[in-house]
Amino acid sequence: MRRVYLSTVSKPMDEAPAAGPRRRRLALVSGNVVALGTVSLITDVSAEMVTAVLPLYLVLGLHVSPLAYGVIDGVYTGATALLRLVGGFVADRIRSRKLVAGLGYTLSAVAKLGLLLAGRSMTAIGAVIAVDRLGKGVRTAPRDALITASSPPEALGRAFGVHRTMDGIGAFLGPLAALAVLAAAGESYDAVFVTSFCVAALAVVVLVLFVRERPDGGTTEAPKVSGTTEAPKVGGKPQAPKVTVGEAAGLLRAAPVRRLVAAACLLGLATIGDGFVYLMLQRREDLSLVWFPLLAVGTSLAYLLLATPMGLLADRIGRLPVVLGGYAALGVTYALLFGPVGGWPLLVVTLALHGLFYAATDGVLVALAGPVLPVRLRTTGIALIQTGQALAYLVSSVLFGLAWQAWGPQAASRVAALGVALVVVATLLLLRKKR
């Protein structure tokens, strides 16, 4: 997202960027992207250690209802979504994305220790999860803005693909680490939480030592967002004024930004929690509880193998087709959960499609938004889009938990598959190429 905003006469959002010289296409990603990927890799090992055992712990250990789990799962991703906007705005205003991202990573690390004190109290567990998601909400937009500022415009898909691949490696290793700790510690969840905290603390150290702040580049002029002012000149050089609340609020006055936010909300509404997918697979196939965390490993393996290829494909054919293809894979995943196929073929195909969904959408959606957002408000804009998606996900998790409880998992999964199909069509209409 290093360029400038997308005006009404610039390239459409779904158009693939220009190819550029072959030598540039083959260039490696920057060191800063690799450093941020390393931080995400280590953090995801920590996060997925907890995530892999949390559905099992809550639903099968504490015997919470599907609706209660849906609320907790929604909190895990969406309840602190509005703080993404705060984090993005503060990062733009103080011009220190690394500092704000570091605060977010630190909060998530500390939250792992909070799980030790929560015990069996659902209120305490929900509060600790909220703190952990607060950290994620604060750090995500500044981190993605740093990746954008560290990459040329035509290679954003590749940069985010490489970052998400490293992120996926962490997500792949996390459940395996959780299994190893559980086996070594006599199935002690406390041991998982302590180990998770130590790993998360290491990620903060790597961020401090190796990630560098990067100023945004870009020379092309873009349309102004309402509320902006001309940059004053000091010593003959223009000095950018601080971002204001009114300027940030003006983002939604730009039609391309509004369309992207609306599309992100729709896409979030069509997504149910991973834990629901894994619980339905476990129930249908009667998997041993010992093997339950490995379902997340299957998704993560597909994700890490496909994230970079999907990023490269997005740079080549356009980012919107790749995003919509990812959601199509998600719809098929939901449809298969109670389809005619069963056994190991079902597990392999479902988890592969689930990983493909994440590989085709996670970083590519942010890369799609890059050309639309003004340089000065890029972190805020990314946070706005992610906030809309996360809030919609919160609603989706609660509704799916309610549907499961009222109609059963089979009917709920079929409704989810239909919802994805409708959302893909609506998103295409919102973001398709304007002729």
UniProtKB/TrEMBL annotation:
<feature type="transmembrane region" description="Helical">
    <location>
        <begin position="191"/>
        <end position="211"/>
    </location>
</feature>
<dbReference type="GO" id="GO:0022857">
    <property type="term" value="F:transmembrane transporter activity"/>
</dbReference>
<feature type="transmembrane region" description="Helical">
    <location>
        <begin position="287"/>
        <end position="306"/>
    </location>
</feature>
<feature type="transmembrane region" description="Helical">
    <location>
        <begin position="168"/>
        <end position="185"/>
    </location>
</feature>
<feature type="transmembrane region" description="Helical">
    <location>
        <begin position="67"/>
        <end position="91"/>
    </location>
</feature>
<feature type="transmembrane region" description="Helical">
    <location>
        <begin position="413"/>
        <end position="431"/>
    </location>
</feature>
<feature type="transmembrane region" description="Helical">
    <location>
        <begin position="344"/>
        <end position="369"/>
    </location>
</feature>
<feature type="transmembrane region" description="Helical">
    <location>
        <begin position="318"/>
        <end position="338"/>
    </location>
</feature>
<feature type="region of interest" description="Disordered">
    <location>
        <begin position="218"/>
        <end position="239"/>
    </location>
</feature>
<dbReference type="Pfam" id="PF07690">
    <property type="entry name" value="MFS_1"/>
</dbReference>
<protein>
    <submittedName>
        <fullName>MFS transporter</fullName>
    </submittedName>
</protein>
<feature type="domain" description="Major facilitator superfamily (MFS) profile">
    <location>
        <begin position="32"/>
        <end position="435"/>
    </location>
</feature>
<dbReference type="InterPro" id="IPR036259">
    <property type="entry name" value="MFS_trans_sf"/>
</dbReference>
<keyword id="KW-0472">Membrane</keyword>
<keyword id="KW-1133">Transmembrane helix</keyword>
<dbReference type="InterPro" id="IPR011701">
    <property type="entry name" value="MFS"/>
</dbReference>
<dbReference type="GO" id="GO:0005886">
    <property type="term" value="C:plasma membrane"/>
</dbReference>
<feature type="transmembrane region" description="Helical">
    <location>
        <begin position="26"/>
        <end position="47"/>
    </location>
</feature>
<dbReference type="InterPro" id="IPR020846">
    <property type="entry name" value="MFS_dom"/>
</dbReference>
<keyword id="KW-0812">Transmembrane</keyword>
<feature type="transmembrane region" description="Helical">
    <location>
        <begin position="390"/>
        <end position="407"/>
    </location>
</feature>
<feature type="transmembrane region" description="Helical">
    <location>
        <begin position="260"/>
        <end position="281"/>
    </location>
</feature>
